[in-house]
Automatic annotation (TrEMBL):
It is a multi-pass membrane protein. One of its GO terms (cellular component) is endomembrane system. InterPro entries: Tmem135 (IPR026749), TMEM135_N (IPR031926). Residues 11-144 form the Transmembrane protein 135 N-terminal domain. It comes from Polypedilum vanderplanki. Keywords: Membrane, Transmembrane, Transmembrane helix. It comes from the Eukaryota. Belongs to the TMEM135 family. The keyword Transmembrane applies. This is Transmembrane protein 135 N-terminal domain-containing protein.
Amino acid sequence: MVVMSKFQMVPTTCIEYVHPWTDSCWNGSAGLLMVSSLDSFRIYTVVYVLSLLMRGRVPKPKDLQRTLFGILQSTAFLTTSAVSYSTYLCILRKLFGGYNMLTASYLPAFLSSLTAIIVERPSRRNLLCLYVANVATETLWRMAESRGMVRSIWRGQALIFGISTATIVYYFRSGYHLEKKDSVYDVVRFIVGKDEEGGEREEKNESRKKAGMNFLIIQKLVAIIDKFLKSFSKHEKCPHHNSCVHYCISGGAKLFGIGLCIQTALKVVLQIPKIIKTPKKVIGSIFSKDTMRIGAFLGGFSFLYRLTACFLRRTFNDDRPEFAIPSTLLASIAFLSYPDRTAALYIFWKTLQLTYNKFCDEGYLPRVPGSTIILYSVFTAVLFHAATFEPMNLRSSYWKFLHGLSGGRIAVMDRRTFDVWGLNTHAQILKAIEVTKTSNDIKYSLGRW
């Protein structure tokens, strides 16, 4: 087969490609409006209600009102993104008489994302941008890898995580977090400990160390072990109150226990239907070695970080922010017990964001107005492009998200004409449907909408 230029127009219509189930652009958009609004409402109802419950207090009428408005506004945002994408596809076909590689997905997706993100609450735009940047980075890497341009490194996500986290912890130790109160620093404070916090801060009350020891049966045993660990020496440059041995082991044990509880709770919640049907079989799988992975990561990271930091303070008889870099890099070995690509890429993009803001504050870089909106649109367009032409390079969860949002229409769009660009697009679509267990057998109603 002769491969055409990616910029050469393919003379196909939007009826053949965008909405083959109806010959009306208006009907196509109207049907998409119906299914996308319902799916968007379902998604954001869960998101906002969970966010409300996680506050741990009885919601006030004002909280409920804010939650309802948030659900409606975010639903409007996601619905606008879906419907305007289809609309822009039809408009561009009428303007150019066909489609090329740019106008068949990327450009309409960019325009629809730009339109939609303006509808969303400004406070959520940054989070959305980080999310799509995360997924788009992975997608671009897979696209490059499928073309033989790059090659993945074994456990490369641990390297990305280590370097990115080391940068963030260095900012935390140097006191930069006091100027930019980003939520990621709360996570750092939780994992490495408040004692490692840089900059001016209040003295910590030692009575807090007794918190959490409420299990009467093991309280005495814990107290004995605690007293034994505190009997070791503490270096004068270390910011913690008790011995270095106590500091390292107690921090690691605490985070291991928290991680274990988190993963156990998640498994129980996600498998409630199975537990009801076959309780013995499912409960056995919940309390397995796999359940300890998050705990091993959190506990191991905290222990290794504190151990290395104390060692460096003792070796150099000083406490410097720069010690955060080797301490974090060594502690990142624990990430191998839970090598999550999504977490690594999130930390990577969060580091870039914090570094950019830092350089802007120091006058080294200019602030670009609307950069979050532009970046969101660019990265979302990448994801739509991959979903259109090479979905096997797209994260399965994102394909399922688009499939649900469109009521399955993304799998029905006829891309066979685009095989002339040499990407085996039609075959990839069929493979993606098979792998993700989605369907292209869609039932339409209301006049084949």
